[in-house]
Write a structure and sequence with these properties.
Helices cover about 50% and strands about 10% of the residues. By secondary structure, it is mainly α.
Length: about 70
């Protein structure tokens, strides 16, 4: 199992936002946004900042996926 941020990207599309918008709203670095794009591990603090910025819950940002689903 691994983490997938597909729900986050879908949420951004639904809210008509770009990754740059997320970066500005949450105060995250470009490197952290890049990690999310590669489904790499980030701290729970990062996930909380995203949820606060987007007004959403954790399950709307990340999900557990099998290695095949995550593209590994």
């Amino acid at each position: 199992m691994s983490i997938s941020y597909k729900p986050l990207w879908k949420l951004l599309i639904d809210k008509n936002l770009k990754r740059q918008d997320l970066r500005e709203m949450s105060g995250l670095s470009g490197a952290t946004i890049a990690k999310l794009g590669r489904n790499e591990n980030v701290t729970t603090g990062v996930l909380v900042r995203i949820c606060e910025a987007l007004g959403c819950q954790l399950h709307e940002v990340a999900e557990l996926a099998t290695n095949e689903e995550a593209g590994a």
